Amino acid sequence: MAVHKFILDDTFDETLYTLIGIHCSLEDYRLAYLINQYLGITLTRKSSDLDFNKGQVSYSIYEWEDHNQLITWNLVSNICKTQELKIRNYSSLFDTQEKITKTFHLLPEHKTVNYFLKIESEFSFKKEKYILDSILKIPQVVTAYSIDSGQLKSKDNLIFK
Which InterPro entries did the record assign (predicted)? Predict the structure, then answer.
């Protein structure tokens, strides 16, 4: 009896999505509201943030599932700042505590990006350009651009399930 062997390529690992980097100084909830207004979508905050390093680092995430077109939209913060107290022991009368702020990035290769808009669907160039133009119309957004997900080293951080 012949043995048949199926070899599955990495095609199932790669989901098709569009990734847009957004530079702005807005709070996450305000940006989500403005994107909802300009794109006509309904991003809402997920009940739990993205957690990394066993809960020490978390990123805010907003999601909208368009069931009509089978598209999932995610707006996620790229920057997480944490503070910790470090006690300095001097051989003097006063011991001091120092606050240290550490900054973590969801995608370290794009440290200047404040937020990412991930759209899980394959769009035509015209549709992607329309989305970018709509985001750029938001007065508080400095710039927004498409990011090639094939060039990302830490693309595993973009799996939100």
Answer: IPExxxVDY_fam (IPR047690)
